[in-house]
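can u do me a favor
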């Protein structure tokens, strides 16, 4: 097996445009402090952090790859799909984000109704007002509101008792199929990557999902053991997929996961950078 050279680029980070705690600028400064040379903001169902902060990354001499994490469903299981190096002005991507944010709103309201019925007084507007920068809201926002109100003591309790997938106030909501998310990313000129495969219930199902037209697999994730890396790296090789890597950094929302805990192989960073150059050339030739 040819040796994999890891970069100093973390391809899985969240900001306060979804459920991370840092602004893009705080994230970039932190990345510089710990010696990263680049990153991708993979907020849930919004690309607005990239659009609004790409100039700040440039000023700090950080490579910023457009990213997104889309919530999908495959055979009843929740599957996260990462999209990278798409055209940042892609209408397909923007419309998909907008549609999914409205679906998230409808579903969050239902979860809040269930919580209210259990005596936890809250409205969706109150939850949102705690996170004025967010463009896509989800369970971590509701959980943090509950902690602030003293309804639960921490995120773990919020998910275990109320919001987790098997808990009584969970509402799955309408999701993309995994195929649809891949198609959106491809239409936007990007690469589709299966996120954190170790969270999928069976390796069998991972193999089945990888029959879809994915381009890559997240083979380095947070604090994966070497053994876990090897499983996914071999699988990617068998399927001719590239391997990405990142921490899934959320700041104080997931304090046990530091930025840069995993980084991506250099060859995939080069592929994404070249793709961005191609998009740039194409957009200039249209002018
Ligand atoms: P949502 O996108 O609204 O379905 O929320 C999913 C997010 O909630 C995930 O990306 C995680 O960040 C977080 N999450 C899911 N399960 C748990 C859990 N058991 N404890 C803490 N955070 C969780
Ligand atoms: Zn998240
Ligand atoms: Fe995820
Ligand atoms: Fe994530």
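np, heres the sequence
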């Amino acid at each position: 097996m040819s040796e994999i050279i890891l970069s100093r680029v973390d391809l899985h980070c969240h900001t306060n445009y979804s459920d991370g705690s840092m602004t893009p600028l705080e994230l970039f400064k932190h990345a510089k402090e710990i010696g990263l040379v680049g990153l991708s903001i993979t907020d849930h169902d919004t690309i607005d952090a990239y659009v609004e902060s790409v100039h700040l990354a440039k000023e700090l001499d950080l490579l910023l790859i457009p990213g997104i994490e889309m919530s999908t469903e495959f055979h009843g299981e929740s599957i996260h799909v990462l999209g990278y190096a798409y055209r940042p002005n892609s209408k397909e991507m923007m419309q998909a984000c907008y549609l999914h944010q409205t679906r998230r709103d409808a579903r969050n309201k239902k979860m809040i109704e269930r919580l209210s019925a259990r005596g936890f007084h809250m409205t969706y507007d109150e939850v949102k007002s705690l996170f004025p920068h967010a463009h896509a809201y989800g369970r971590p926002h509701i959980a943090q509101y509950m902690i602030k109100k003293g309804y639960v003591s921490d995120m773990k309790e919020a998910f275990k008792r109320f919001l987790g997938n098997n808990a009584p106030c969970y509402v799955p909501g309408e999701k993309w199929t995994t195929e649809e998310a891949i198609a959106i990313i491809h239409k936007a000129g990007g690469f589709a990557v299966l996120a954190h495969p170790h969270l999928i219930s069976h390796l069998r199902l991972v193999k089945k999902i990888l029959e879809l037209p994915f381009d890559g697999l997240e083979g380095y994730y947070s604090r994966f053991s070497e053994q876990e890396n090897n499983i996914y790296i071999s699988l990617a090789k068998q399927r001719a997929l590239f391997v990405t890597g990142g921490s899934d950094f959320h700041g104080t929302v997931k304090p046990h996961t530091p930025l840069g805990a995993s980084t991506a192989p250099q060859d995939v960073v080069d592929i994404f950078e070249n793709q961005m150059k191609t998009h740039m050339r194409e957009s200039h030739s249209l002018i």
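The longest helix spans residues 91-117. hope that helps!!
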